[in-house]
UniProtKB/TrEMBL annotation:
InterPro entries on file: Epimerase_deHydtase, NAD(P)-bd_dom_sf
Organism placement in taxonomy: Eukaryota, Viridiplantae, Streptophyta, Embryophyta, Tracheophyta
Gene name as annotated: LOC107419385
Region described as Disordered: 1-21
Any one GO MF annotation of this record: isomerase activity
The protein's name in its UniProt record: UDP-glucuronate 4-epimerase 3
Length: 436
């Protein structure tokens, strides 16, 4: 969202600074203006020259801007390093030492807590951007703190921060969940997707490839990579070259980038294609969340339908099932083979669908919410706009079952019941007490 801020400040700058005014002054004033303009010109030219020289010397010796520390950075120092080390200390001899990016996000919070509970060392990283209400991220952070997980506030594009973290802790694994999520928002702010999902990913992989030892990486791809693929259920072998949104295209690009870093540097990388993950502490930008909010407020909700009154459906997957898949991916990840930025041998490269295998029409999702909330929704059924959405998703999970033992067990009604219970407790103002 820092990106959003940057762009929105540009919106307030007028494109034409002012109208040209013809000069009606006398010759004397003319000459006087000429001399003052000349001296001003010289002054500005010298400033400009000095600036060019400054840029020249600094560009050849300093790292790219994203990796320089900015004035607002709040990390560093002895106390901070101590907190980082303490959080990353594992409590079982066989445990992992995991850096979780996007730790204050929906999936990040659940995965971090699950890892910490079983004795792994966990350090969180999150930039707390404003894509959705940051108070929810802060509430998740409190939950993480109570579980012993420290969340470093910083961006995955900040290479000096990432390098520092790897200096302080020898991470065995990185669970990379930081991303610009949301399919439809990509039309409003395309730059934020490139910034987080492409530039941020490359920056992270650059640091990982140079780390010694190199960590194994597990990261969040998306079911959206299947795009306009119509063969169901979606298998990892199916084509993924027809993304329907820029979001999907950046996730697909991420998968290709992962291939490159695996091939050149020997990084062990596992991509997980999540299918519409929902549950307590979820994302307010997702339909099940804002439908709940609007139904309770008596506001109308828009339910999309496919052409010819066709059904739009999603393979909604409950968060606890996704967490199990993430942990299994970390546990089965083989070590990276490179060191010091050099590959020593072939490394593991995997991609898995993590879905629920039973798509549910969006209309049915609304009916379940009506039942749980005991409120009738004001539905407006509209044709699905051409904004990146796809008609349906449906996961084939046989590969994840075989390799990870992944077996989702929560149906949509059971999962939504848990979500609604959490939602009512969190939004009733008893945020501190809201159940896990
Ligand atoms: O599976 C995935 O890969 C993706 O799942 C979700 O994307 P999406 O499935 O579009 O989830 P929602 O935005 O919650 O939409 C769910 C369904 O509700 C429908 N919808 C959405 C909004 C609305 O106003 N009305 C409506 O009918 C959508 O068309 C869609 O079928 C997440 O938002 C993405 O970050 C994630 O990567």
């Amino acid at each position: 969202m820092s990106q959003l801020k940057t762009l929105s400040h540009l919106d307030s700058v007028p494109s034409t600074p002012g109208k040209f005014k013809p000069d009606k002054s006398t010759p004397y004033v003319h000459r006087f203006r000429f001399y003052t303009s000349l001296s001003r010109l010289t002054l500005w030219s010298s400033f400009f020259l000095a600036f060019i020289i400054f840029c020249f010397f600094f560009s050849s010796s300093s790292p790219p801007p994203s990796s320089r520390r900015s004035l607002g950075d709040s990390w560093g120092g002895r106390d901070w390093e101590r907190r980082v080390s303490r959080s990353a200390r594992k409590h079982t001899s066989s445990g992992l030492t995991v850096l979780v990016t996007g730790a204050a996000g929906f999936v990040g919070t659940h995965v971090s807590i699950a890892l910490k509970r079983r004795g792994d060392g966990v350090l969180g990283l999150d930039n707390f951007n404003r894509y959705y209400d940051p108070s929810l991220k802060r509430a998740r952070q409190k939950l993480l703190e109570r579980s012993g997980v420290f969340v470093v506030e910083g961006d995955i594009n900040d290479s000096s921060l990432l390098k520092k973290l790897f200096e302080v802790v020898a991470f065995t694994h990185v669970m990379h969940l930081a991303a610009q999520a949301g399919v439809r928002f990509a039309m409003q702010n395309p730059g934020s997707y490139v910034h987080s999902n492409i530039a941020g990913l490359v920056n992270l992989l650059e640091v990982c490839k140079s780390a010694d030892p190199q960590p194994a990486i597990v990261w969040a791809s998306s079911s959206s990579v299947y795009g306009l693929n119509s063969k169901v259920p979606f298998s990892e072998k199916d084509r993924t070259d027809q993304p329907a949104s820029l979001y999907a295209a950046t996730k697909k690009a991420g998968e290709e980038i992962a291939h490159t870093y695996n091939h050149i540097y020997g990084l062990s990388i596992t991509g997980l294609r999540f299918f519409t993950v929902y549950g307590p502490w979820g994302r307010p930008d997702m339909a099940y969340y804002f439908f709940t909010k609007d139904i309770l407020k008596g506001k109308s909700i828009t339910v999309f339908e496919a052409p010819n009154h066709g059904t739009v459906a999603r393979d909604f997957t409950y968060i606890d099932d996704i967490v199990k898949g993430c942990l299994a991916a970390l546990d089965t990840a083989k070590k990276s083979t490179g060191s010091g930025g050099k590959k020593k041998g072939p490394a593991q490269l995997r991609v898995f669908n993590l879905g629920n295998t039973s798509p549910v029409p969006v209309g049915q999702l609304v009916s379940i919410l009506e039942k749980l909330l005991k409120v009738k929704a004001k539905r407006k059924v509209l044709p699905m706009p051409r904004n990146g959405d796809v008609k349906f998703t449906h996961a084939n999970i046989s590969s994840a079952y075989r390799e990870l033992g992944y077996k989702p067990t929560t149906d949509l009604e059971t999962g939504l019941k848990k979500f609604v219970r959490w939602y009512l407790s969190y939004h009733s103002g008893s945020k501190k007490k809201s159940s896990w």
